[in-house]
């Protein structure tokens, strides 16, 4: 079976990709799984650039097809913030809870609804240098009280009107169908199948 590297050492993300891409005929591994230690500086100006940096570095170092992704939360009332800086919104070393608390504080005087979206870019890189990019979004609203225990990051305050719940209240199988990462990965799936059929 072919191997595809997920350019992250986050085991949760790898499990999520297995759920999102159940029909991909490949084994999904992290760089650490193959003894590869990579530190990629994410200094791109867009999600797509950061995803590409990770995917290309991993493909070059491993000699295997690699998937990199980058994502963020964009809130209309904050002019698209935290955006690219979603993971560092409350400063380096802050927890997910710290970031959510800062977001709620920033929006405390903004009346509902507070439109927002999660956006994800995925880059698929081949060792020879070819790279393809894909994007997915998930529209919702920010609420000021946390709800749900599934998911991570901003999920407990990201409300999905179509489902009447937050992202953190969705069953995993639903989240892995409608999330921004799921939609980006589904867009990438035909390309992944094609290059795997070609032997990478």
Structural features, described:
This protein is an alpha/beta fold. It has one domain (2-197): Maf protein. Helix content is 31%, strand content 24%. A 7-stranded mixed beta sheet has the order 2-1-3-4-5-6-7. Helix 4 (172-178) crosses helix 5 (180-197). The protein is globular and about 55 Å long.
Q: Count of DSSP helices?
A: 5
Q: Which residue ranges are poorly predicted, with pLDDT under 50 across at least 5 consecutive positions?
A: none
Overall shape: it is globular
Rounded mean pLDDT is: 93
| Count of discrete structural domains | 1
| Strand content range | 15-25%
Largest sheet: number of strands, sense, barrel closure: 7 strands, mixed
Count of DSSP E strands? 7
Q: Percent helix among the residues?
A: 25-40%
CATH architecture classification: Alpha-Beta Complex
CATH class: Alpha Beta
Fold blueprint:
Layout: E1 2-6, H1 11-20, E2 26-29, H2 47-62, E3 66-75, H3 96-106, E4 115-125, E5 131-142, E6 158-160, E7 165-166, H4 172-178, H5 180-197
Parallel strand pairs: 1-2, 1-3
Antiparallel strand pairs: 3-4, 4-5, 5-6, 6-7
């Amino acid at each position: 079976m072919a191997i595809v590297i997920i350019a992250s050492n986050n085991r949760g993300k790898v499990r999520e990709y297995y759920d999102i891409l159940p029909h991909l005929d490949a084994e999904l591994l992290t760089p650490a799984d193959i003894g590869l230690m990579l530190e990629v500086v994410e200094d791109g100006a867009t999600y797509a650039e950061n995803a590409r940096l990770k995917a290309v570095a991993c493909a070059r170092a491993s000699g295997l097809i690699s998937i990199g992704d980058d994502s963020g939360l964009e809130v209309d009332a904050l002019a698209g913030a935290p955006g690219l800086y979603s993971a560092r919104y409350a400063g380096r070393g802050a927890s997910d809870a710290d970031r959510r608390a800062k977001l709620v504080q920033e929006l405390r005087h903004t009346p509902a609804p507070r439109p927002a979206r999660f956006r994800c870019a995925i880059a698929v890189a081949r060792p020879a240098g070819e790279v393809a990019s894909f994007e997915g979004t998930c529209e919702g609203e920010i609420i000021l009280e946390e709800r749900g225990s599934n998911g991570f990051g901003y999920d407990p305050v990201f409300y999905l009107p179509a489902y009447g719940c937050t992202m953190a209240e969705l069953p995993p199988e639903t989240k892995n169908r409608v999330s921004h990462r799921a939609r980006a990965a589904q867009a990438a799936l035909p390309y992944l199948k094609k290059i795997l059929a070609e032997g990478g």
